[in-house]
Amino acid sequence: MGMLDQLLYGFSIALTPENLLYVFIGVLAGTIIGILPGLGPMSAIALMIPIAYGMDPTSAIIMLAGVYYGAIFGGSTSSILLNAPGVAGTVATSFDGYPMALKGQAGKALAIAAVSSFVGGTIGVVGLMAIAPSLASFAVSFGPTEYFALMVLGLTAVVSLGGRNLTKGLISAVVGVIIALVGIDSQTAITRFTFDRPELYEGVEFLIVALGVFALAEVLVMLNRRGKGGVRKAVTSLRLSRGELARITPPTLRSSVLGFFTGVLPGAGATVASFLAYSMEKKIARDGKTFGQGNLKGVAAPEAANNAAAVGSFVPLMTLGVPGSGTTAILLGALMVLGVQPGPTMLTDNPGMFWGVVASMYLGTVVLLVLNLPLIPVFAKVLNTPRTMLLPLVVVFCVVGVYGLSFSVFDLGLLAAFGVIGFLMRRNDFPAAPLILGLILGGLMETNMRRALQISGGEWSVFVTEPISAGLLVLAVLSLLPSLVRVLRRRPAAGTPAEVSTPVDGSEERTPTPRG
């Protein structure tokens, strides 16, 4: 009953006209920013800290929280319509969302994203409200060995997105990790893979790789088709049948829970949660082979997970003062600028802020749904744009997004290079998903591996002697087993007469790789 009283107290704060306005402003600004690659939630929050400086601390954090989950929600729109994920947490949404758009089901894909995001956000808020203190105490027990093992699990799980070809999936993941290592080593100050180019000293930006490998590569694929296939102009309604709602409900609920627990772990966040949810659903779904071809579950799972994780990342931020992601690190800075010190005493010292933010998050998910469902037909009209206009617009979209990062022409050259790489990967059936996740997790893996080795005095056995770390590594190995078994089953049959009739490219029963 005490918790219910506190939640009602939180709603009494969040439902004031002033705070309701800040929820709406934050959510609307976040959605618009999420749609535009180049301005993710981190940039938006950083830009709005000066605006928040003169505000009441509770109102300020309510508005900034709205920007955060609004941006993750909005990022799904460009992922589905243009295959141009500007926010890392919505990359997995494009794997099935964009193929749905190509089939003329853009409205349906956007509606699924809206509903799944709402459910994920709601479950995340319930989890934040109910078990924040106990989850925070579990999360703090994670050390560098456990985080390294968690990142390895995330990478191996997503390799399954490479269809039936395990080798190509692993190659993509390794290339992603290598790209993540470009730049100055933070511990030794030695430059790595920079080819003496000062522009590479700070590493390769995620946005350059994502827009190159996804959006620009898609432009090249369309040009290569010379008008064959591509975007269909017929856009179906956004109405979901009872059967479709029944199909997406279980993956949405499962992914929401997985996303929330992933978001609670500092360093994991919405991106890892969305990839893990997509990978999990592809493995357990009866129609897992159709993932990457426009499966409804492939849109619902990552959208539910990334929104639940966005809310979950507030658990370590509010209860421990530990940022759970890059965006919550910016929020931590904003709280300190406002004179608030988050930590274990926040629930007792500043309950109004904690419960006010929790209540505002639930209101924010409702506002997102009400705001975005009517706009879906407007967004879907992007697909009616003639190809002669759409392709240049996508290129401009990419160039402006990348050039706005650092105003560097060199970055535009990198964008073009990754566009060509993405195109060649498509032509040769190399999945882009493991590459992107390798890029995102590579730096975190290296940092945590080094810390673990420093603590253990260089003993590699520390990764298998710690129970949580060992358990996660066992799960990582098990996640690769289905692909390994398929490879071993195919080998004995390599010379049989049945194999002679396989296609010229040597593929057998090829499963189209996820578009991404």
From TrEMBL:
Keywords, alphabetical: Membrane, Transmembrane, Transmembrane helix
Keyword Oxidoreductase: no
Chain segments carrying region Disordered: 495-516
Pfam families the UniProt entry points to: TctA
Residue ranges annotated for the DUF112 domain, each copy included: 20-437
Domain of life: Bacteria
Ranges of compositional bias, category Basic and acidic residues: 507-516
Residues passing through the membrane, by range: 20-39, 51-74, 110-132, 138-159, 166-184, 204-223, 257-278, 320-340, 352-373, 393-418, 430-448, 460-481
Record protein name field: Tripartite tricarboxylate transporter permease
Organism, scientific name: Nocardiopsis lambiniae
